Amino acid sequence: MSRLLVLLNKYNDSKATDAEKSQLLWMLCHSERWNEDFNDFWNQSFATMDESTDRRILKSIYKATKPKQYFPWKVLLQVAACIAILLSMVVSYHFWDENIKLTQYVDMSLEVGKGQKSDVNLPDGTKIFVNSDSRLSYGKDFNGKIRKVNFQGEAFFQVAKDVFAPFVVMIGDLEIKALGTSFNIKAYPNDNIISAFLQEGIIEVNSAKEHLSLSPGESIHYIPSTGEMYRNEKEENQSNLAWLNNEMFFDDEPLSEIIKRLERQYNVRFLIQSEKLKTITYSGTLKNSSLQSALEALIVTSPLKMGYRIVPDGIELYNK
Predict the structure, then answer these.
(1) Residues 143, 135 contacting (CB under 8 angstroms)
(2) CA distance 126 to 182
(3) Which residues constitute the domain of residue 265?
(4) CA 40 → CA 10, 34, 158, 229, 257, distances in Å?
(5) pLDDT at 95
(6) Which residue of 150, 154, 175, 318 is 20 to 30 Å from 296, comparing CA positions?
(7) In the chain, how many domains are there?
(8) Using an 8 Å Cβ cutoff, are 309 and 315 in contact?
(9) 22 Cβ contact partners less than 8 Å away, ≥ 6 residues apart
(10) What is the per-residue pLDDT for 274?
């Protein structure tokens, strides 16, 4: 007796194993395996079987012998949960991004007078400490794909990180771009040099002629009159951030530049009587000094005999 007939007999007697049922199904699905065995049975049969009955019997056998499949529902649920979370994040970001784009910021400006300091929190979470005689402004450009502010003076920026919207400080045609960074800018209109010092993070500085990227501890100096820009590596925080602690740091700095800082710090006007005094240079630090203490420190350390007096227009420095 052929293997096929053996399996059929077992199946009819409900004695076939799952493996035998699978084998029987495979043999029935391959006609070359059973045609010869059943030719005699077909020839001896007095009755015929219509195609629908034939299909129904085969379907019944297939259903009974088909191996059970266990669907991984747990894995499916985990995948579905991940997809749902991802879709939720995409939808949330879409609406957040659209809301940001639709937000229309009104023009805002901050002016800090001479002899004053201030700090401000911007809508994105950026915090700015502003030194005396400084101006900060922003408007409709502070949204969407960029956070742009216009600035002049001196300030320390603690920029809130946003990988989708760089933070840009415009100083005339000079652009300073950051994502999440701490840096100091000194850019007074009456100074010959604009400087930026990076404490942490990365900033890009772009002018009409050059492009520079800074690493922590580096600074750039930009000369507006010529468009030249150069980098200083590994500067100390003390020289750039002393003003945050109410200090003034001088490094071989001429008196003509020092009095500009004193005028902003103390909201006074200085008059220098002698051209020789303008060339005197100073190095050191003034810590939390009053105006009188600052003047006395300059006089005591001056290589020339110098004095000061109060005049109607301010304070006059003269050579004795």
Answers:
(1) no
(2) 10
(3) 246-319
(4) 21, 11, 94, 101, 118
(5) 47
(6) 154
(7) 4
(8) yes
(9) 65, 67
(10) 86
d(CA 289, CA 250) in angstroms, rounded, equals 14
Residues lower than pLDDT 50 in the chain = 90-91, 93-102
Euclidean distance between CA atoms 278 and 272, whole angstroms: 7
The per-residue pLDDT for 189 is: 92
| Enclosing H/E stretch for 260 | helix 255-266
Q: For residue 290, which phi and psi values (nearest 5 degrees)?
A: -75, 170
Q: Which 3 state secondary structure label does DSSP give 202?
A: coil
Same domain for 9 and 87, yes or no, is no
On whether both 221 and 141 belong to a single domain, the answer is yes
| Structure token pair of residue 138 | 């922003």
Pairing state of beta strands 146-158 and 167-171?
Answer: parallel
Measured CA to CA, the distance from residue 76 to residue 85 in angstroms comes to 14
For residues 133 and 201, membership in a common domain is answered with yes
Instruction: CATH number of the domain at 176, please.
Output: 2.60.120.1440
